[in-house]
């Protein structure tokens, strides 16, 4: 019964009670603080969500770039194989035996006979002894001049 009476006093304000016994009501400012705390935590959660989405987006870009790199490397390997095949084919076409066979079979060519060969003699003009001695003198003079210039430039 005592408990019920205290509850009753809590809910029922008797005007005859003294000021000391009246229950004081708490100010409403606490409710505003609770709302601010909730908004603060919601803001932090939103920032965390945005940060997580940004990291996920960047990771997706990294994965996309890795896929592109892998595809390009596969294309590179394929092109290198094609290049090697073409080089081998070119070497086969450039071989002298192949060229000789094609000339004989396709073009009907044959080696020349002794009567078809024409020899040409080329005589180089010879320099006279006077001209050779003059050239040798000029060369020695030039070589001495070069050595002097090199010696002077070596000092600096």
Share in β-strands = under 5%
Radius of gyration, taken over Cα atoms and rounded to an integer in Å: 53 Å
Order of H and E elements: HHHH
Number of extended strands: 0
Number of alpha- plus pi-helical segments: 4
Protein structure class: mainly alpha
- CA-to-CA gap between the ends? 119 Å
Residue windows where pLDDT falls under 50 for at least 5 positions: none
Main β-sheet, in a few words?
none
Helix proportion of residues, in percent? over 70%
What is the mean pLDDT?
Answer: 81
**Shape by Cα distribution:** elongated
Give the gist of this structure:
This protein is mainly α and about 160 residues long. The chain has four helices and no strands.
Give an overview in words.
The protein has 156 residues and is mainly α. The chain is 72% helix and 0% strand. The chain has helices at residues 2-11, 29-94, 96-105, 129-155.
Task: Describe the secondary structure blueprint for this structure.
Elements lengths: L1 H10 L17 H66 L1 H10 L23 H27 L1
Defining traits:
mainly alpha, 0% strand, 4 helices
């Amino acid at each position: 019964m005592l408990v019920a009476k205290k509850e009753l006093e809590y809910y029922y304000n008797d005007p005859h009670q003294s000021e000391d016994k009246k229950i004081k009501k708490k100010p409403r400012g606490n409710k505003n603080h609770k709302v601010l705390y909730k908004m603060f935590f919601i803001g932090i959660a939103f920032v965390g969500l945005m940060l997580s989405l940004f990291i996920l987006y960047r990771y997706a870009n990294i994965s996309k770039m890795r896929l592109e790199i892998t595809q390009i490397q596969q294309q590179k390997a394929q092109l290198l194989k094609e290049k090697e095949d073409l080089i081998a084919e070119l070497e086969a076409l450039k071989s002298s035996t192949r060229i000789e066979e094609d000339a004989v079979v396709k073009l009907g060519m044959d080696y020349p006979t002794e009567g078809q060969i024409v020899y040409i003699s080329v005589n180089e003009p010879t320099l006279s002894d006077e001209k050779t001695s003059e050239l040798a003198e000029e060369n020695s003079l030039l070589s001495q001049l070069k050595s002097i210039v090199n010696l002077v430039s070596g000092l600096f």
